[in-house]
Structure to design on (386 residues):
């Protein structure tokens, strides 16, 4: 007999598959009982680099996390990377003719008007409110209880590619029949930004290993989502090639680049190779890195320009993820090249998850902890899951 039931949260990165297994207490805290990071071939440009072995990699990651853990998994929540998703912004409205106190049923009907968003190889996995408009004038994020004559809804629907859903369903059904999908960029935005900040709008840039997600959230809904396959791993490769050093050594060199102190460019970066100690030109390493950062910024700017909802220039951009945040002074480089104020954003869920590379999994944990269906009945409809 299993001693107790746990849930599993899976963060699908471009370098590894992270699995966290635990339970949620009455205070909505997630207690990790087991976790693992399973290296695999990843993805690029929305395609798996080793699709043939992907199913076995997924099963191996979960099996590694549950080894020696005497439990039954009651539900699995999978974070979907931006490269496998799309968003649809929909508007719906209703007129009551006379003053009417808004109820939950009224709100549900507005969402029901947009129940045809799935199709063409995509399935809706998340939907959330950007804002409501009262009587064509006043905006609000919660109209319930208000007396209005008309009500308009602007909502964001996040769609996941069916091939992504199918491969994870097929791999994980042996562990659990309850499998649900959550947009990772959306979960990050919901967890990292307060409601007040989201109401004004916020841009989050998650630069990972070989992928970058650019998210624009207003209220509770994504107004813009873009992704491209360039990340911190490309900087490491550039350093490895340009400095003629092993890839793992280049990882170390990347962490020693410092754009904050100008004089640091005059000090060599010392590494130890098989043939002995070597002094690397830090100025050259910084130049190599900056060229790739400039390419990343050009792609970020291009993705923001594609958003169907205009993203004001005055909004800050927030950086998270492990791809760039290990470079000292990178925020000043981003601010200059993006022509926007840039700041770092990390999770405050716990001391062990307050690192930028943990933002994705901490976002998924916070969303699941607050909305797991065993705790709140609207979870299934909120995430468009049956």
């Amino acid at each position: 007999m299993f001693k107790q039931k746990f849930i599993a949260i899976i963060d699908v990165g471009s370098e590894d598959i992270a699995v966290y297994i635990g339970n949620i207490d009455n205070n909505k805290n997630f207690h990790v009982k087991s976790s693992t990071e399973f290296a695999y071939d990843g993805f690029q440009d929305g395609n798996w680099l080793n699709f043939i072995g992907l199913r076995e990699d997924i099963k191996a990651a979960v099996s590694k996390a549950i080894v020696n853990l005497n439990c039954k998994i009651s539900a699995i929540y999978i974070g979907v990377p931006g490269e496998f998703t799309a968003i649809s912004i929909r508007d719906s409205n209703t007129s009551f003719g006379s003053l009417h106190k808004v109820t939950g049923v009224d709100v549900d009907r507005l969402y029901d008007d947009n129940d045809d968003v799935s199709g063409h190889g995509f399935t809706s996995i998340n939907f959330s409110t950007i804002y409501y408009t009262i009587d064509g004038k006043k905006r609000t994020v919660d109209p319930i209880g208000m007396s209005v004559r008309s009500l308009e809804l602007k909502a964001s629907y996040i769609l996941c590619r069916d091939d992504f859903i199918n491969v994870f369903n097929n791999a994980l059904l042996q562990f659990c029949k309850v499998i649900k999908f959550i947009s990772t960029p959306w979960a990050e935005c919901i967890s990292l930004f307060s409601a007040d900040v989201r109401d004004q709008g916020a841009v989050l840039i998650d630069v990972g290993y070989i992928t970058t997600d650019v998210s624009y959230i207003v209220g509770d809904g994504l107004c813009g989502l873009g992704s491209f396959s360039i990340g911190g791993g490309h900087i490491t490769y550039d350093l490895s090639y340009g400095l003629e050093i092993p890839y793992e050594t280049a990882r170390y060199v990347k962490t020693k680049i410092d754009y904050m102190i100008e004089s640091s460019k005059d000090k060599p970066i010392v590494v130890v190779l098989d043939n002995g100690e070597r002094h690397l030109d830090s100025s050259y390493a910084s130049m190599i890195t900056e060229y790739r950062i400039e390419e990343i910024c050009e792609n970020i700017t291009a993705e923001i320009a594609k958003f169907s909802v205009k993203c004001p220039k005055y909004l800050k951009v927030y950086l998270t993820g492990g791809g760039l945040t290990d470079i000292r002074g990178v925020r000043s480089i981003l601010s200059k090249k993006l022509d926007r104020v840039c700041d770092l954003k990390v999770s405050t869920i716990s001391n062990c998850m307050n690192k930028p590379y943990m933002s994705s999994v901490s976002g998924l944990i916070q969303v699941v902890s607050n909305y797991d269906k065993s705790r709140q009945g609207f979870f299934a409809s909120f995430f468009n899951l049956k």
User: Anything to note?
Assistant: The two ends are 28 Å apart (CA to CA). The first helix runs from residue 51 to 66. The domain at 194-344 is CATH 3.30.420.40 (Nucleotidyltransferase; domain 5).
